[in-house]
Amino acid sequence: MDLTAIAKVKEDGVKALEKASSLKEIQGVYNFYLAKKGAFQPLLAVLKDLSSEEKSQYGKALNEAKTLLSELYKKRLKDFEKTALEEKLAQEKIDLSLPGRDYKSGHRNPFWLIVDEVSDIFLSMGFEIAEGSDYETDHANFELLNIPPDHPSRDMQDTFYFDAVHLLRTQTSAAQAHEMQKRLDKGPIRIISPGKCYRRDDDDMTHSHQFGQIEGLVIGKGISMADLKGTLDVFAKRMFGAKREIRLRSSYFPFTEPSVEVDVSCAKCGGKGCNMCHGSGWIEILGAGEVHPNVLRMGGYDPDLVSGFAFGVGIERVAMLRYGIDDIRRFYQNDVRFISGFEGEERRNGR
Ligand code: DAH
Predict the structure, then answer these.
(1) Atom 4 of ligand 1 has which residue's CA nearest to it?
(2) Closest CA to 308 of 193, 215, 190
């Protein structure tokens, strides 16, 4: 039995570990001595030829040598790692006196603030929100709303077609037909559907070829104009102030009968007449009416059994009145100065 080979590996190993001057070097020493196929491996191979007494003596020496080198390796490794960390920290010194970086957070467009606020008002009255699609069919956008191909009311809206069948919806009313069909035989309907619509129009301070609407639809037994008026009165008061009154003026829409325009008393002058309401004391906010029997029928409902009301309110219109915005184009120009002006509103709404 020859223990000198073990002693030699041990001695050389200790020397090499002590001499190593970098993390890389010490890793190399580890691989040479302590890794699986390192210098101890051939020494282990000798074991099998020894007697059991020699084996225990030899094995003990071997283990001691290995443990010694391992411990020394770990210690030195720790030292190197510590030094490396210290060096890194020294290099990455943070200068706390430097001014901070200003992270700009965006703000929601007042368009969406109004959508949320209007939605909250109607949700509190038991309405559900139904999502419509900007991409629509002529059928849902016009025909199911009692507007056949030759109807004159199309003239104002015949605009963005993809093909003979598909178009960019011209009114959120297109959601009515879908919801009626989807909810057939599932009890009364009480929905609002906010979204964008598109139609040829002047692009000026009060008109845009793209704008938002919130559609409302209620269908059930015995739903009357009184329900429409009561619901919209609550909406106007919650949206524009408890003192606001509404008035209904007779109007025409192909999908409602009777049809009305709904005005709200001017918030600025309280109804006396001022520049905001053009002297009338009233500001028009939406169109509405009792759902036309043809629309009910086409949606799968029997007008002798159920009735309903519908309304469509312009989102920008409401936002302009609510926040005193003078030009509809501001909603789409993406000017941060404009958008940031509504930061307070955003917080007030808790969003
Ligand atoms: N769709 C109408 C428009 O774009 C607005 C409207 C009027 C919607 C009356 C309705 C309604 O649901 O009953 O001008």
Answers:
(1) 171
(2) 190
CA–CA separation, 122 and 120 (whole Å): 6
> What does the pLDDT look like over 175-223, one tens digit per residue?
999 999 999 999 999 999 999 999 988 888 888 999 999 999 999 999 9
Give the position, in ligand 1's atom list, of the atom nearest the Cα of 170: 4
Residue with tokens 């030699």: 8
CA distances from 306 to 3, 33, 174, 187, 228 (A): 104, 91, 20, 11, 15
C-alpha span between 342 and 351 (Å, rounded) = 12
Using CB atoms within 10 Å of the CB of residue 331, give its burial: 0 to 12 exposed, 13 to 18 middle, 19+ buried: buried
Rama region for 190: left / alpha / beta (φ>0; ψ in -120 to 50; rest): beta
Which tokens hold the place of 307?
């009735």
CA 39 distance to own-chain centroid:
62
What pLDDT, in 10s, does the model give residues 323-349?
989 899 999 998 989 998 888 777 666
Q: Which of 171, 189, 192, 198 to mutate to test the pocket of ligand 1 (most atoms within 8 A of CB)?
A: 171
Calculate the alpha carbon distances from 80 to 58, 77, 198, 235, 263 in Å.
33, 5, 68, 72, 80
pTM to 2 decimals? 0.72
Report which secondary-structure segment, H or E, holds 147: none
Q: What residue ranges in 6-98 does DSSP mark as E strands?
A: none
State the Cα–Cα distance between residues 279 and 19, nearest whole angstrom. Answer: 96
At 224, phi and psi to the nearest 5? -120, 180
Whether ligand 1 lies within 6 angstroms of the CB of 310 is answered as yes
